[in-house]
Predict the 3D structure of the following.
Amino acid sequence: MDFTYTEEDIAFREEVRAFLREQLPADIAQKASRHQRLEKTDYIRWHKALTARGWGAPSWPKEYGGTGWTPLQKLIFEVESYRAGAPRLLPFGLTMIGPVLMKYASQAQKDHFLPRILNMEDWWCQGYSEPGAGSDLASLKTRAVREGDHYVVNGQKTWNTLGQHADWIFCLVRTDTESKPQEGISMLLIDMKTPGVTVRPIVTLDGGAEINEVWFDNVKVPVGNLVGEENRGWTYAKYLLGHERTNIAGLGHCNRELAMLKAHARESVGNDGRPLIEDVRLRDRIARIEMDIMALEMLLLRVATAAVGTDPSTQASILKIRGSEIQQALATLQMEVAGPQAWPYSPAWMHADAEESGPGPAFAPGNTAGYFDMRKTTIYGGSTEVQKNIIAKIVLG
Ligand SMILES: Cc1cc2nc3c(=O)[nH]c(=O)nc-3n(C[C@H](O)[C@H](O)[C@H](O)COP(=O)(O)OP(=O)(O)OC[C@H]3O[C@@H](n4cnc5c(N)ncnc54)[C@H](O)[C@@H]3O)c2cc1C
């Protein structure tokens, strides 16, 4: 496989850079450079700017309004976007439920939901995990009982990301309690405004309230919101997880954090009065991470190219492990560069109008928040241990 950048690729990269220079709002880019929290309006503003340019769905085929980009173009776009400080494109509609709908949904569902995802008229969230059903997802208990032309849903989802903003949730529910656990699961699309849906925040280690519990109390869902066939939800769920894990590799994020790490190491001064970047042991550790990121890029390109038209779940587990480990290593080194001047976590700092005060370099509070935030990466989307089980099963049989 040839991953050399062609003249077209280089021209494409320039086009992306020019677009980012002109269209990315400075206040959003500044938040990224300080590890500050983005508001719902920030995500929507950026998505709409991309949609106006025809780039709202980089990974979708043209027939659904996507870009039709090659894997390399998608990667260039991701890397350049992060480098410029653009927000990540929210995965829940674009790279989770979107591809599932394209492959398994009815024509009516495709016609209704896909354009709305493309234009970000609907904000989606993911309703898979439950208390006691995370790694062992097939043991989920949220129950959907068919009554005429509706399902009646009762139960609880947890660790639901950004559900407080969501219009819709794609939800795994139990529709059959008699068969094997995997054979009694269905996927429902549920309007978050339906009576009986309650969202309660969970405060995380970094002080944020980005994740939630979602409760369903006799929630009526039209039968037309079932994806595919009843009791075949496990197949659709696995297809979606493959896309989620590829997405979590986060090459653009890694490159941006590496650049920030180097900048912070230039800015900080060691005990000998010299910039930290001149410390050979630190340079060695930065170089190792940089090599890991280069290897991740190659791996990602191989998977992205091979994944066209195939089930990406196998290689996705490898990518998920490597990407999340690198993200954590970068966050750890960023904290170490702040050294004794690292701040205690400051929730106030996470907002754009935060005052810059306190000891240490200006980057320190953001790095602290980033360090805590990155603890999640080896858990969400399926923990590292579970990914290793998947790889072992496939390799060792
Ligand atoms: C920040 C964040 C955001 C999330 N967002 C969402 C979301 O939007 N929607 C959603 O549905 N879910 C979401 N999740 C849930 C996530 O998918 C689960 O946390 C994850 O699958 C692990 O499940 P669990 O938390 O129940 O841990 P458990 O399954 O209880 O695991 C506990 C520990 O045991 C280990 N373990 C479990 N089983 C095995 C095994 N067979 N072999 C070896 N080790 C094992 C795990 O690795 C882990 O270390 C999110 C999680 C986090 C942290």
In short: The chain has three domains: 7-89, 123-231, 249-396. DSSP finds twelve helices and seven strands in the chain. The mean pLDDT is 90.
